[in-house]
Amino acid sequence: IPGNTGCIARTCAASAVGLHLVGPLGYQVDDTKLKRAGLDYWPYVVVKIHDSWEDFREYFRQQEGEKRLLAFTKRGTKIHSDFSYRKGDYLLFGSETSGLPPEALLDCKTEPFGGGTIRIPMVETHVRCLNLSVSVGIALYEASRQLNYESLQVPSESCIDTAEESFITEDIFA
Questions:
Q1: Rounded Cα distance, 107 and 116, in Å
Q2: pTM strictly above 0.90
Q3: 118-169, pLDDT tens digit by residue?
Q4: Which of 6-15, 102-111, 123-132 has the lowest mean pLDDT?
Q5: All domains of the chain, ordered by start, with CATH?
Q6: Is the peptide bond prior to 24 cis by the omega test (within 30 degrees of 0)?
């Protein structure tokens, strides 16, 4: 939903990591609620939109360097804080209602780029799942902590500095 995406974008801006949105999305990227949830942080996050999982997979394959796809799911086999993150990891999250699509889960479980499935522990009594933006924050900051907050060492001048600039771009931070 737009509110979650805006909150996630704000977390990405605060931690200097890029955000990939993979369609189909349930809203327009110029949605007022999306912009409101991201507040005035949109110029400080690099966003790449992919029309489908196949489009994202092709983009991912073309990226240089070591990289892995890590699926965050309540059925994950490893706990988020016990997992060893590496530079170049892509953290994947699905919708709160349906999770990640089967093809994304399969790609995360198989070679050459699959890094596995990860879960954030929670009591499963009356709560089906954590809020998506909360889950992203938990995972992103655990990965950042393990990598000594390297992404936070990005000089501020590398961020876009004008509110007139569109928050959608073709470039993404590594």
A1: 9
A2: no
A3: 999 998 778 888 999 999 999 999 999 999 998 888 655 444 444 444 444 4
A4: 123-132
A5: 3-151 (3.40.1280.10)
A6: yes
Residues linked to residue 78 through DSSP beta bridges, in sequence order: 118
Question: What local confidence, expressed as pLDDT, does residue 154 receive?
Answer: 60
Contact 91, 139 (CB under 8 A): yes
Between helix 102-109 and helix 53-62 the angle, nearest 10°, is 30
CA–CA distance, 130 with 142 (Å, rounded to integer): 16
Residues 6 or more apart whose CB falls under 8 angstroms from that of 157 comprise none
**Please, which residues have CB within 8 angstroms of residue 36's CB and are 6 or more apart in sequence?**
6
CA 7 vs CA 1, 91, 131, 132, 152: distances in Å: 10, 16, 11, 9, 18
Structure tokens at 151: 């992404």
